[in-house]
Write a structure and sequence with these properties.
mainly alpha, single chain, 2 domains
Length: 95
């Protein structure tokens, strides 16, 4: 048996937009709206299923992972550059 919600459709949509717009955790937005975080999380998931997931700001762990991948990519590019130079050098060396 489903419980009848006391939230209007307009409130639901506005709450979802607030949760998606700001880079704050859903639980923080829910506290500001004085509502259960799981309720808001459910609304956000439903919205994402129906409208597609919107690309927003990256989470802290995603930013850290991106930064690490960018660092590793620079490192590998330097290694490739060095190996190309070494290959060219040894290709010219008649011994």
């Amino acid at each position: 048996m489903a419980r009848q919600s006391s939230y209007s459709p307009e409130f639901r949509e506005e709450a979802v937009q607030l949760a998606l717009k700001f880079s704050k955790p859903i639980a923080h937005v829910a506290r500001e709206l004085d509502m259960n975080p799981e309720t808001l999380r459910t609304w956000v998931r439903r919205h994402e299923r129906e409208h597609g997931k919107q690309a927003g700001p990256l989470e802290v762990d995603e930013r850290a992972r991106l930064k690490e991948l960018e660092r590793r990519n620079r490192e590998l590019e330097m290694e490739v550059s060095f190996l190309k130079k070494a290959a060219a050098y040894f290709a010219k060396d008649p011994r």
